[in-house]
Amino acid sequence: MRKIHLSSFAAALLLSCVAFAQSADPDQVWREAVEWMKAQPGPQFPSMESYRAELMKKGLTEAQANERIALIGKLTQDDPKYRQEASTLSFNRLYSSPSQTRFTTEPNAFLASSIKELKPGKALDIAMGQGRNAVYLATKGWDVTGYDLAEEGMKVARENAGKAGVKITTVQAGFADFDYGKERWDLIYFVYTDAPMVDAKFVERVVAALKPGGLVLVDRPYRSIANPEPGWRETDQDKPNALPKAWSALQLVFYEDAAGYADWQQTSAGRLEEKRRIVRMLARKM
Ligand SMILES: C[S@@+](CC[C@H](N)C(=O)[O-])C[C@H]1O[C@@H](n2cnc3c(N)ncnc32)[C@H](O)[C@@H]1O
Predict the structure, then answer these.
(1) Could you report the per-residue pLDDT of 172-208, keeping only the tens digit for each?
(2) Which of 105, 193, 263, when mutated, tests ligand 1's pocket best, judged by the most ligand atoms within 8 Å of its CB?
(3) Is there an atom of ligand 1 within 6 Å of 191 CB?
(4) Atom 7, ligand 1: which residue's CA is nearest?
(5) I want to staple 60 with a disulfide (CB 3.0 to 4.6 A). Which of 10, 64, 117, 212 is the partner?
(6) Full DSSP string of 50-102
(7) Domain ranges of the chain
(8) How much is the pTM?
(9) For the segment 47-67, what is each residue's pLDDT rounded down to a tens digit?
């Protein structure tokens, strides 16, 4: 039998490859990255470049570090579970940072003007974030429930409600698992959310949850080939007039697709610097 002689360098390389292969379980690679990211300060997560540098500082070769970064990218690209976790982690990070500049903490203007003439009732805030809209509505006499996956945002919402001397209900839930109920809400609003608003089953659940005469309100960026955003991928929601079509079971009260300043400016540099297309819809259950 041929003997294999390894130089100490080759042996070290082999050992480090074995160590990498052993630790390269995708979920473990993910968890390690998440733990490192969580430990870094600031309103946003550090770039993958910083993580690559960190991995190499820990002794991985450039190729091994690249392999891990590519694996993390693939997990978020291919698996909704990891994509959702990454999104919630980054929203939690943002909401717990008082110095954030990504979104205005003022209530949404379309929502504020739309409720002016309404008698306060029960409102549901879909993906409420840090509660800028829920708290505002509560100060106007509405009984507001909001849900989101990002608990840090809802913590800020409850604190701000307390400071304003009002109560709101917060529920940690996702679009699919929140219990919407039947004929329960006078107003359900979707402000800057990627909830599946053109999914027929989802629309049906939300319509069933509205009281007769109840309203659905939407205000969100309209993304299109001509109006993309960082990390954007076209969805059915981004097709012209997708919303009025999907919600045709309701009576359309108002719809516009117009340029304006977004509440969420969607980049990390400065805010309100350029106008974006925004869709706004108000529709009533007859
Ligand atoms: C752009 S923020 C908007 C927050 C708030 N509506 C506002 O206008 O300030 C989007 C929110 O959607 C939440 N979100 C993302 N995926 C979600 C899901 N599957 N279910 C519930 N909330 C989700 C995020 O945690 C985040 O708070």
Answers:
(1) 999 999 999 999 999 999 999 989 999 999 999 999 9
(2) 193
(3) yes
(4) 129
(5) 64
(6) HHHHHHHHTT--HHHHHHHHHHHHHHHHH-HHHHHHHHHHHHHHHHT-TT--S
(7) 8-78, 109-284
(8) 0.87
(9) 899 999 999 999 999 999 999
